[in-house]
Amino acid sequence: MKNQITVYTTSTCPYCVLLKNFLNEQDLPFKEINLEKDAAAAEKLINTTGQLGVPQAEVNGHWVLGFDQKRILEFIQE
């Protein structure tokens, strides 16, 4: 089954870069949404998770707050 990964970022977030690099190293394709460029996505994120901090990732329907490699890997489909 194909993984569905969406990463919510900002341009100045160093942990966002770490998260994207980690996903690339794991050969996990992802969609990136930069919240500075998409106000509607930022509002949706706040309404969904209650958090505006980045990075946040939605991995196969599960939310991962921050750069948490272990949690991301827990939600990856084998």
UniProtKB/TrEMBL annotation:
Recorded superkingdom: Bacteria
Gene3D superfamilies per the UniProt record, alphabetical: Glutaredoxin
Listed name of the protein: Glutaredoxin family protein
Family matches, as SUPFAM superfamilies: Thioredoxin-like
Cited Pfam families: Glutaredoxin
Every Glutaredoxin domain range: 5-63
